[in-house]
Design brief:
The protein has about 230 residues and is mainly α. The chain is about 75% helix and about 0% strand. The chain has eleven helices and no strands. The radius of gyration is 20 Å and the shape is globular. Bound molecules: protoporphyrin IX containing FE. Protoporphyrin IX containing FE binds next to helix 2, helix 3, helix 4, helix 6 and helix 7.
């Protein structure tokens, strides 16, 4: 694959849509893996910290992080580009007819949920990724989730993610031409299940806010309220 091929790929409308679909599906996969990682919080401090430490000490991880960043950038650029093109090429009156013809809340709010996810991600990285980790990851996360402000952001972010994926997953398969009477209903159901799974991020944060994590409380962890 040379640069000319990539250039041709993103300079055609079909190529841009395919790139948006593939990067979106890959990001959906990342979200599922990241959710599974964070469910380890329920296994306790040792298990969670051991996993994150293992991940960060792996020499492959920096390359995966660059790949992840590239996926986000590709998805955002192609998403905005395709959206602007669709807007320019849409027949007059299309915006007013948006809700007719099988539009869902997920499909009608893609742009807004995308912006909300971007804000949520920036907040998440600024408070969890680009900070001092010396207190340990488990301590950092569970202490943060005792702040109502923090958890409100996580609930709003998880709802935006769920809405975005409720349309995004199935739409990506459609863009890639996967349209089959037998498999399309399965893909739609699978996409909806992935979307619903995203509420798991909100539930994890709520679990700690509501102080159900009695083990941590008994251990007398210091509570750090982040506003
Ligand atoms: C319960 C909710 C979540 C928890 C507890 C959590 C936890 C963490 C932690 C501890 C890190 C830092 C690891 C490191 O320093 O490399 C991290 C990184 C990250 N998180 Fe989350 N996360 C959650 C939800 C999310 C969501 C919803 C998204 C996407 C919208 C997300 C995207 C990321 C990304 C992109 C990174 C950076 C990955 C890397 O640099 O390796 N996280 N998360």
């Amino acid at each position: 694959m040379n640069l000319t091929f990539i250039k041709r790929f993103i300079t055609t409308s079909i190529g841009r849509k395919a790139l948006m679909a593939v990067s979106g599906l890959a990001l959906g996969g990342f979200m599922l893996v990241h959710l599974a990682e964070n469910l380890l919080l329920f296994k306790g401090e040792a298990a969670y910290n051991a996993w994150v430490d293992l991940l960060l000490s792996n020499p492959v991880t920096p390359f995966l992080e660059v790949g992840l960043l590239a996926l986000f950038i590709a998805h955002i650029i192609t998403g905005v580009w395709v959206r602007v093109e669709d807007f320019i090429n849409a027949p007059r009156g299309y915006e007013a007819r948006k809700w007719q013809g099988g539009r869902t809340i997920g499909s009608a709010t893609m742009l807004y949920t995308a912006a909300a996810i971007l804000g949520y991600l920036a907040y998440h990285l600024l408070t969890f990724r680009f900070v001092d980790h010396s207190m340990g990851f488990y301590q950092m996360v569970t202490a943060a989730f005792r702040s109502p402000v923090f958890v409100t952001v996580y609930i709003a972010g998880a709802v935006a993610l769920a809405l975005h994926l409720s349309h995004g997953m199935q739409s990506a398969f459609q863009t890639l031409g996967v349209n089959h009477p037998k498999y399309t209903p399965l893909i739609k159901t699978g996409g909806l299940l992935v979307a619903v799974a995203m509420t798991g991020f909100a539930l994890i944060s709520l679990y700690y806010l509501l102080n159900i994590d009695l083990k941590a409380a008994e251990a007398g962890y210091q509570v750090v309220v982040i506003r």
